[in-house]
Design goal:
With 601 residues, this protein is mainly alpha-helical. 66% of the residues lie in helices and 6% in strands. It has two domains: 67-267 and 284-454, no CATH class; 475-595, STAS domain (Transcription Regulator spoIIAA, 2-Layer Sandwich).
Amino acid sequence: MSTPSPQGIQDTQGIQGIQGTEDATDAGPRVPAGAPVRARGAVRAGWGRVRSLLPVRADLAAALRAPRRDLTAGLTVAVVALPLALGFGVSSGLGAEAGLATAVVAGALAALFGGSNLQVSGPTGAMTVVLVPIVAQHGPGGVLTVGLLAGLIVVGLALARAGRYMTYIPASVVEGFTLGIALVIGLQQLPHALGVPEPEGERVPVVAWRAVEAFVRAPNWTAAALAAGVAAVMLVGARVRPAVPFSIVAVVAATAVAQVLHLDAAAPIGDLPAGLPAPSLGFLDLSAVGSLLAPAVAVAALAALESLLSAQVADGMTVGQRHDPDRELFGQGLANVVAPMFGGVPATGAIARTAVNVRSGASSRLAALTHAAVLAVIVFAAAPLVSRIPLAALAGVLLATAVRMVEVGSLRAMARATRSDGAVLVLTALATLALDLVYAVIIGLVVAGALALRAVAAQARMDQVDFRADLPGEHSEEEHALLAEHIVAYRIDGPLFFAVAHRFLLELSEVADVRVVILRLSRVTTMDATGALVLKDAVEKLHRRGIAVMVSGIRPGQRRVLDSVGALDPVRSEGREYATTPEAIAGARSHLRRAGLLPAA
């Protein structure tokens, strides 16, 4: 086999190059050489991100590790979840069947695709609070559309890896909106608990007050007694025998009493479909999507927030369990996309049901899947029996749930921590009651952030310091006295940002008649553009007074901010930026000697 000559290789390469040029000319505009590679890399990275959110083999291994314990826990949670699903479905305005559909469909999908092994999802009181005004304004179809849009938004948050940012919500805000939710849930139950028609009104406190007025005019003691009895059994039973699901016991007993005694004043749930409806997008009205985007964002924010908080609670109740926040968002988003197709309301992770799941010994997502499967069996096999449950009994379940949501010990500890925490807690709770949950969280975050900034700003200091220890070389007391007469040194400790910068400018502007000011910046922890601009303004004002400014100890991370606004230009132009304080003092001595204020060395 002969080896081609170098000349032959060059000729071949030249011919190929000419052909390649002709081909490129014939094909049209030239594509950059690296474009296909970058495109393939982007596709590969995108698929890798999606793949990281999908179920993995370890999920199946965990489910097979202790299946009997998980099946038992799932059955227990289903018993607890049944009356809650029915109650929250009724409270949302879409009916008990919507609550059951949500618990089955969203519960199964969130368990399968979510990021927590212990999370139980379904309709919740917090979501019901947000849905009630949406139902009043846009009707059932609008709620289903909002749920689908919110699911897509939450999936987008998962793909953007936004889960980790939910951890920045202060505990005072969480406790405040939990208290507010409990108050709203309790007030929402008054019409059914008192056995009166649902009054008109948008604000929960107003509706509750009108329900009380209606009860005073025409009292329904049967409904009130059933609601009070169910709530009392749940609250007292939970203290005596915490392991017994007294919610289902109380509901069964109330239903039996109503049927045996023919208590017509206790209105039942009514007919329920014997099974889930076929999936459909018939509710989707594209022309209304624009007006529903704002409610969808609110629902998505709540779904993400409550689900991640619930997963975090579950982690804290166990050892060795840690949820994946982005995958949890993906699972909740997918659940909310699909649930409306079956007539379900938006769902989130349910803290109370998740806590029951953990306490019942669950160790994998098989328990949550079992909970959804048991509820599906109830939907298909026991719909006629469930339809006879009195609405007052479900109202009693939710009244007891609202009471148990309030952790008095946590509220007391938060109020005692700091005045700021107490103020944020109360403000968030009142905003939840007066406005809605999303606005309440936003208000709580803004106020908490402002108070935190004030606390950080209070730690920032600018002190005049003695520079005797930093004087280089030998110096006499007389020389030190002369230096102290003409030089003043300031050390800035802490952050130099917008909340404190103007206070520092005022202090620097009031410097007495000296010839040199040394600014020691080595202890500045952070600096923003406002701080840099204020520093520049201070330097220029001192220069106009004939005072030389020396700067020392600038950190590398702060140099970029200072350079971006030109804060160091007046100092650098005269060579007065130094790495250390002794060097700055040496430069100040030289400046004073040139000015004839110190004797020559």
